[in-house]
Amino acid sequence: MAFLPKAILLFAPLTLVAYAQDVAGETPKDRSRRAQALGEQGSTALPALQAMLKDSDSGVRLEAVKSIVKIGTQHSLSPLIEATLDADPEIQIRATDGLVDFYYPGYVKTGLSGSLSRLKTSLKGQFTDVNDQVIPLGIEVRTDVVEALGKLARGGSTMMARANAARAIGVLRGQAAMPDLLDAVRSKDSRLIYESLIAIQKIRDPSAAPRISFLLRDLDNKVQIAAIETTGLLGNREALPQLRDALDNARNKEVRRAALTAIAMLPDPQNLTLYDRYLTDKDGLTRAAAFEGIARLRNPADLPRLESLFQAETKMNPRLSLAFALVMLGKVELSEFSPLQYLVNTLNSSSYNGVAEPFLIELAREPAVRTSLYQALPSGTRDEKIGLARVLARSGDAESIPHLEQLSRDADSEVALQAAGALRALRGRL
């Protein structure tokens, strides 16, 4: 047989039998080093690494999972799904984050995996406070990936592993795992409940709303606020009495603000006197919620006072809410100082584009607003074009297609890429 370099013999793809023969006599430390080294070899090393997932030593299996995540190709998905079945919580967590990372590149660095550390008797890790990550519309996630994460959310080895899986489901918009999330919100662990609620928000399935109403009075502040927010986002009008009760009996301004914001998402003329009560509230976000509530009542008689409030308001959040209200009440023109132009301009702000974009998505459901937004596309900045592409992906119709097609040929490659993704998402939705 021709001579082969030792490195090739070491890292060539191995069958289970060959792997068993090769590692005979090796210590767990030796096998762990092998797993680490295989991570440098790319997809060809995946069969050998997947075989290592059956190793009797958890440390070897852990290093195998790390290497599979590092390789990070589509061929990594099946081994990672297998790794979610491991009894070791760290392996479950790293497999979870690796699955998400394939669809949301960079997630492993920012997710729970990035903070994990093993102590003698426990596993420590810190969830990041930012929980707004979600894959772009149009990206399809394999069903078996979502199913594996759902099983973890329902029955992972630890509450940390379950909560991490729930967060992952939200990032991937895993609709198929909704029954698992609804099971998870009935646990007694506040972190798991919270992560499950945020995931439900991201999936936006209105049918889930009645199943979380019991959390609107939860004693945990974060859980109660998340439940209130989710109720509003899912449009559960039947929960209005409970939301009003949460507003009247709020323990703090955060709960009061969340309750009013949720009520504002559920238009009801009976709420007008309630909104009037908070128009001059000292908390800017509470004022903003009141403005949004009036906006969604769509009463033209409210336009003059909202215009006056818009001119006088100095805080950014309530001013954006007033701009939203004015457009909702018919000020759809696009001019230098118009409220719609103000919202479009705010797409350039890293601090407030996350406020302006959802407003524009809601407003763009109206044909007259979409017509004005088309005018903004050719001369918009990079951030404006990208933001408006996302808006049209969510709220556009067939007439939006040629505008996105034109944007997909933009000279700015990033704009073109985002517009192409928005176009796919729009066509898929239509």
Describe this structure in words.
With 430 residues, the protein is mostly helical. Among the domains are: 1-71, Leucine-rich Repeat Variant, CATH 1.25.10; 97-116 and 132-203, no CATH class; 332-430. It is 61% helix and 1% strand. It is built from 25 helices and two strands. It has helices spanning 6-11, 16-23, 28-38, 46-52, 58-71, 77-83, 89-103, 107-110, 143-155, 159-171, 178-184, 190-203, 221-233, 240-248, 253-264, 272-277, 284-297, 303-312, 316-328, 339-345, 353-363, 367-376, 382-395, 401-407, 413-429; strands at residues 117-118, 123-124. The chain has a two-stranded antiparallel ribbon with strand order 1-2. Helix 3 runs parallel beside helix 5 (58-71). The protein is globular and about 85 Å long. The protein starts with 5 loop residues before the first helix and ends with a helix. Residues 1-22 have low confidence and may be disordered.
